[in-house]
Amino acid sequence: MLKNIHPALNADVLHALRSMGHGDTLVVSDTNFPSDSVARQTVVGRPLSIANLSARDAIRAILSVLPLDTPLQNSAGRMEVMGAPDEIPTVQGEVQAEIDRAEGRPSPMYGIERFAFYDLAKKAYCVISTGETRFYGCFLFTKGVIPPAGV
Question: Which segments cross the bilayer (predicted)?
Fold first, then answer.
């Protein structure tokens, strides 16, 4: 255990989050996402796991240390429901609330068509799979920056 670090953030996840640079993306996926095959094409090259948590709880842990990119560009995306791209399933609503809480303001997610999501995921820095069993619990986040003190 470490002080002030969410206990769900294991060493592999912390290393990946710390190693990412501004503009790098990460995928947080549900249990149905092809995490292994997609993760093999990412920078990390293997899937990471926070398997004992829902998407909401895993993202809460991740956003406790990961800055999202500025509101000037998309920083949080969600996999769209096939045939209903504007539908927001409960799992996505829960994650939206976590993003807004972490950012201290409304920060709406953008939708990504399912197959486009897979293509973007293959270019990500890493894939972190969760224990989320609900459909469409897949998200893409872009890392932001932490400004120097006093700026």
Answer: none
> Which two structure tokens, joined as six digits, stand for 91?
């799992």
The structural domain count of the chain equals 1
Q: Check which CATH number belongs to the domain holding 118 and give it.
A: 3.40.1650.10
- The string of DSSP letters for 22-38 reads TT-EEEEE-TTS-HHHH
**Range name among 9-13, 50-54, 68-72 with the lowest pLDDT average:** 68-72
Query: What is the secondary structure of 65-114 as a DSSP string?
Result: TPPBPPTTS--EEEEPBTTBTT---HHHHHHHHHHHHHHTS--PPEEE-H
Beta bridge partners of 142: 25
Range of the domain at 98: 45-142
Determine the distance from the C-alpha atom of residue 144 to the mean position of all C-alpha atoms in its chain, rounded to a whole number: 13
pTM over 0.85: yes
Contact 77, 111 (CB under 8 A): yes
Tokens describing residue 87: 């539908």
Q: Is residue 12 situated within a structural domain?
A: no
On whether residue 18 sits in a domain, the answer given is no
Supply the residues annotated as catalytic: 22
